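2024-03-11 09:14:02 INFO worker-7 job=invfold-0412 stage=load source=structure_tokens
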């Protein structure tokens, strides 16, 4: 009996030991499973938020496949798209290209051939591009420069920014010993009707179309253009002004003040008008020097085909 009882006690002890070992083993396994669940990659740390959410912090290894690498790449690509390209290949680092892109001929006209940027300093009005019906600038002023006539008239006016630039141009000319006269600035739609019809009546349709604009398509109506001459040539608006010292000075220095010679010699097929060395157009001191340097007409300068990196 004693032998049997001893064996029973040993078996009970062994079973108890096995049960304790099993419990300890299960506890270890549960602890390992919880940690792996919190950090499946076996790296990094976790943080328990107050709302019960577990936030995982993984190591950024800087590889192309990491999320950190993707974010950087995505941000870089986004930056390149913003900084390097704007519309038609214009760059934010080159404001001239960006401005040209915004003012491109193809994107500033509607189905009725009306310009959509009539108030812009870079608006292009010509035989194919009309101003909206009834358009009149709301900032017309009279520049403080000598005119070729004394009486009050609408043609003494220009848009404010262009007028201020003209005053600086005339002051620059005077400082160089050049005497200029303003002849004709702003021209209303109604006055263009009268001028155009009179030219047709007295000079014929073919001649008129080479020198005069159909009402609504005159650059003078924008308030950004003005005809300039000099007493040395009798203040006439003729090609002889271009060969005078005053005309040559104007062609050389106009861009410094934001103006360009609008209708260049030999470009009638592009601009639609004969050479007019007296007709200058304000487009701003940022763009004018670039236009002059390029040798392009405004039609060419603002054509999408020429707006490239």
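2024-03-11 09:14:09 INFO worker-7 stage=emit residues=309
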């Amino acid at each position: 009996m004693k032998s049997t009882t001893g064996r029973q006690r040993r078996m009970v002890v062994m079973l108890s030991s096995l049960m304790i070992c099993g419990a300890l083993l299960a506890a270890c396994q549960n602890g390992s499973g919880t940690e792996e669940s919190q950090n499946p990659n076996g790296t990094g740390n976790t943080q328990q938020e107050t709302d019960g959410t577990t936030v995982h912090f993984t190591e950024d290894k800087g590889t192309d496949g990491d999320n950190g690498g993707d974010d950087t790449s995505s941000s870089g690509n986004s930056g390149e798209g913003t900084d390097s390209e704007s519309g038609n290949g214009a760059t934010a680092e080159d404001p001239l290209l960006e401005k040209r892109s915004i003012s491109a001929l193809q994107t500033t006209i509607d189905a009725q051939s009306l310009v959509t940027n009539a108030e812009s300093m870079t608006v292009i009005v010509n035989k194919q591009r009309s101003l909206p019906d009834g358009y009149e600038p709301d900032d017309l002023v009279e520049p403080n420069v000598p005119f070729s006539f004394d009486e009050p008239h609408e043609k003494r006016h220009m848009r404010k920014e262009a007028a201020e630039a003209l005053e600086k141009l005339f002051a620059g000319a005077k400082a160089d010993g050049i005497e200029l006269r303003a002849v004709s600035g702003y021209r209303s739609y109604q006055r263009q009707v009268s001028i155009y019809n009179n030219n047709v009546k007295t000079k014929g349709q073919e001649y008129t179309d080479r020198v005069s604009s159909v009402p609504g398509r005159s650059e003078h109506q924008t308030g950004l253009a003005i005809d300039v001459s000099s007493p040395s040539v009798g203040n006439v608006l003729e090609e002889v002004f271009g060969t005078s010292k005053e005309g040559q000075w104007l062609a050389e220095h106009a861009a410094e003040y934001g103006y360009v010679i609008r209708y260049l010699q030999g470009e009638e097929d592009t601009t639609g008008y004969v050479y007019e060395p007296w007709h200058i157009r304000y487009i701003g001191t940022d763009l004018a020097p670039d236009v002059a340097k390029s040798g392009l007409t405004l039609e060419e300068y603002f054509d999408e085909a020429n707006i490239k990196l």
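2024-03-11 09:14:09 INFO worker-7 stage=report msg="The CA atoms of residues 77 and 83 lie 10 Å apart."
2024-03-11 09:14:10 INFO worker-7 job finished
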